[in-house]
Amino acid sequence: MKTLNKVFWLFGRSGAGKTTLSLRLCGGLKDAAIPVVHLDADELRSTLCSDLGFSAEAREENNRRIAEIARLLVDQGFNVVVSTMAPEYQQRDSVVRILGGKLVWIYIHAPLNTCIKRDPKGLYQRALQGHIQNLLDYPFDPPRDHERRLFIDTTMQNIEGCYSDLLEAVKAQLADYTI
């Protein structure tokens, strides 16, 4: 069996469904005996990236660190599923410089008002109360064509349907594997 060596990078707003879908995807790949590691920005922010804030520079550094870890893992024969906001072009461009052709962007879409209603981590509520800066007003650059080849809109169907679409899209990238 040929090694995949790809990084599937799920990005979108907080509350769009990135973590939920990335965990499901990792489970599906593991069930198919495909080596995979999950890197979640929230988990890394509480450990390796705990020294970073939420300024544009700190967000870029957070994504850079995650991309470097993903590169090391993919070079060791793992597939990597990343879930992070990566809201700005410069942050995503930094990821591309590090990962190049190993990277597969997957845009997880939900409009801001939907994410605010979902608010699974209470981030938007804390932002509305003034406890978190740069969340509601932070720019989210729309994905460019090469960043939206794989596009999942979590407002169009339930999580099962979104996962099914995601798995089909990843299957297309994994032609040498049976899922």
Which structural class is indicated by helix and strand composition?
A: alpha/beta
Number of domains: 1
Widest sheet, order of strands: 2-3-1-4-5
Oligomer: single chain
Element-by-element helix/strand order: EHEHHEHEHHEH
In what range is the share of β-strand residues? 15-25%
Q: How far is the first residue's CA from the last residue's CA?
A: 13 Å
Largest sheet: 5 strands, parallel
> What is the CATH first-level class name?
Alpha Beta
Count of alpha and pi helical runs: 7
Identify low-pLDDT runs.
Answer: none
CATH homologous superfamily - what is it?
P-loop containing nucleotide triphosphate hydrolases
CATH topology heading = Rossmann fold
